Amino acid sequence: MLSEMTEHRAKERMRTRWTAPLDKVFADLVVEQIQLGNRPNNIFDKKAWGYIRDEFNKRTSLNFNNNQLRKHLDVLRARYNQIKSALVQNDFAMEDSSGLDVWEGTEAIPRPEPVKIKDCPIYEQLCIIFADNGADGRFAQSSHYEEVEHKSSANNANPLRLTSGMETEAPAVEVPVSLKSAEVNTSSVVKCGKTSLENKRKRTSEVDQNGRQQRDQEILDSMAEALLDMISASKLRTISKSESRHMFSITNCIKALDEIDSMGEVLYLAALDLFYDPNVRETFMSLKGVDRRLHWLQEKCNATGVC
């Protein structure tokens, strides 16, 4: 008898249809637990599910179990995804940036009907339930099953593992030929740039070295020219002195003295004594004319007291 009553109640629960008020009560309870922080890592624990079940049954006078509520949460997720997809299509069907309707002139494809949020009274609750923290509420989902925790950990360890248990390898990423060429070209440009810089520095160094060599050569040429001038001047002075000594020698002075016919013996001998002085010889030989030389010798001898 007891088993028949249990079976009857189960059939009654199966025949119970979810209405908008029931959806709202259930969604409000789920949101309440989320806002209280009872869904760590997007997973309700047994305590949270137990509270949702008991409070739901209390408010609705029903007798649903955890499995039934979880299944209905899947139904709400599907409804949320459908609304989200329709909103995306409506956003695309709106006027583009130029102000023209993108569906204008398209007869083969019917214009989609706009989605009305008011047709889903619990849309805001669904956004909270199935939206990741920090993401747009219209385009995110979250998990609400205890059993998902282990699967989620396994999937996190291998993000490419399929839900059916099949595994797939990460696709090999091929580098486009254009990128490879760009890398080669970039390397070539860098090498060419370095080579050009080295050549420029080399040319600059060569120019500087040539400039220094040219300046050094000019200095050497100037020094050599000055040295040659000094040597020439020295030679001229040497020649001049030699010629001067020869011109004003005692021999030449005696020859000039012998040309004076009217000179007495005393004055002649006195002049020879005066000729030991180079300055006297030079003065005597520089005078022009026999009479002038004679007169100068007479005055010189009188002044010095030789005569």
Summary?
This protein is mostly helical.
How would you characterize the overall build of this protein?
Helices cover 67% and strands 0% of the residues. The protein is mainly alpha-helical and 307 residues long. The N and C termini lie far apart (191 Å).
Break the fold down into its secondary structure elements and pairings:
Blueprint: H1 2-15, H2 20-35, H3 46-60, H4 66-93, H5 123-130, H6 148-157, H7 177-247, H8 250-258, H9 265-274, H10 278-286, H11 290-304
Radius of gyration: 64 Å
Task: Report the sheet with the most strands, covering strand number, pairing sense and barrel closure.
Answer: none
| Unreliable stretches covering 5 or more consecutive residues | 97-108, 133-154, 157-171
Mean pLDDT level: 74
Number of helices: 11
Helix content: 55-70%
- Terminal CA distance reads 191 Å
Order of helices and strands: HHHHHHHHHHH
Structural class: mainly alpha
Extended strand count: 0
Task: State the main characteristics.
mainly alpha, 11 helices
